[in-house]
Amino acid sequence: MYLDSKLPNVGTTIFTVMSKMAHDHAAINLAQGFPGFASDTKLQKLVSKAMEEGHNQYAPMQGVYSLRKRITNKLNSLYGSDYHPETDVTVTAGATQAIYTIVSAFIRPDDEVIILKPAYDCYEPAVQVNGGKVVPIQLKAPAYKVDWLAVQNAITPKTKMLFINTPHNPTGTILDKKDMLELQQILDGTDIILVSDEVYQHIVFDGKQHESVARYPELVRRSFITASFGKTFHNTGWKMGYTVAPKELMQEFQKVHQFNVFSVHHPSQKAFAEYLREPSHYLGLNDFYQCKRDVFLEAVQGSRFNATPSAGTYFQMLGFSEITDESDTTFAERLTKEFKVASIPTSVFNLRQQDFKMLRFCFAKDDDVLRRAGAILCEI
């Protein structure tokens, strides 16, 4: 039977490839972005309690109301927004499902979608499988600052959507207030939908502020914000997240969502609704992860790698141009097999796989693991 693939150039993700390589060669896995420590036992007990209390059938399609209320209260308190739990939030099977559903709800064949690269690898396939055209704009190492003039020049009458990601995976950079105001000005007077991937919103360092789209009313009215409980609370395997948007946008999202997953894990929703009662569960993450970033940076201080401290996320970019002329994919493979430390080569996220000689390391691991990895990197 002849199959005409809608994604002919999509293969196994780099995260799967590098994690398998790490396993096969008994390497320290600083590649795939998952925490190397357990989630809070209190949260786990809340899930068990919800199951014992009988919350084991379908949840409401939009999500459990008590959780939606906690989410909107959190956002409104942190960012001065005015999201409503009845109309403006949907609980999703992680941020990736939210992003795919957003694209499916709005992108038609030949619609143009602007994506800033390097970009998380779920954005482009979602656009392509729905017949849209990706318009990539490459950010340049090592600063990875957005060229807003390039963004403005990329907008055409066919532009339907724009993706931003702050804090940014894989680079660890963040957008500041000036960035957001420039973006707001560029989009003013257009019908472009903004998708703001904010899964690392609670992991920002050095006293800086997370510039959520929720802070900017003129952006809010055209935007989806996607977020992840898995990234926030160290349980990526639960695949739990949410998205918020104004009522008119959310209605269109839910039309697709109800035929995609309909609803997500009921006991976890009840647990998160209770867990979010205590703001310290997420407000303390900045300091927690900054300490881990600093442990890793100190551990590699004597190495030949170059580092600009990550401003957010739990990823640190290290440049290796002073070590080898190899491509980042070749060096990442050798680093895993010979030196037993796995990372992610970042050219795979770039336009035409442009190679800036940068590797991404995940520091969401126990301190002793980070120190052992750092000691190995110092020997290279």
TrEMBL record:
Gene3D superfamilies: Aspartate Aminotransferase, domain 1, Type I PLP-dependent aspartate aminotransferase-like (Major domain). Residues 28-372 form the Aminotransferase class I/classII large domain. Keywords: Aminotransferase, Pyridoxal phosphate, Transferase. GO terms for molecular function: kynurenine-oxoglutarate transaminase activity; pyridoxal phosphate binding. Pfam families: Aminotran_1_2. One of its GO terms (cellular component) is cytoplasm. Its cofactor is pyridoxal 5'-phosphate. Belongs to the class-I pyridoxal-phosphate-dependent aminotransferase family. NCBIfam families: PRK09082.1. This is Aminotransferase class I/II-fold pyridoxal phosphate-dependent enzyme. It comes from Dokdonia sinensis. The lineage of its organism: Bacteria, Pseudomonadati, Bacteroidota, Flavobacteriia, Flavobacteriales.
